[in-house]
Design a protein that fits this description.
alpha/beta, 5 strands, 15% strand, binds D-ribose
Amino acid sequence: MKKSRLPTIAIAGDHAAIDLKKTLADYLRQRGHEVKDMGPKVRKSVNYPDFGKKVAKAVAGGEYDLGVLICGTGIGMSMTANRFRGVRAALVHDSFTARMAREHNDANVLVFGARVIGDAVAVDALESWLSSRFKGGRHKERIDMLDE
Ligand code: RB5
């Protein structure tokens, strides 16, 4: 039987997200994914759109299969990523919203607010997103409408 390849994942954040970004990137690598950390590397104040755009472009262009973005609330990163055609970024808060983001919305970028969510809840949500599958059908018709 053919073994399917694990999705490759680009991850980025801002200064509010340095610690959670490392936790999530380590988790993804342990899970066997190829992970590209698109920064920032240091804790100094940065502008979230600079880093959100890198991941959104990488996913929109097919360079990486999926993306993870983190800022303080997750709001700025969501706004940034959803400006890119083909990107469906979902700000999630727990494993339920993460699973729905996959099953109903086929989110290809998962977004977290590092100042809102605990590390363990974020890891749980990430696992839930990765282990769920898009349900298609009426949900496919709806996500197709986003690009019309
Ligand atoms: C940075 O202070 C903060 O504004 C940013 O991390 C994010 O929450 C924006 O949406």
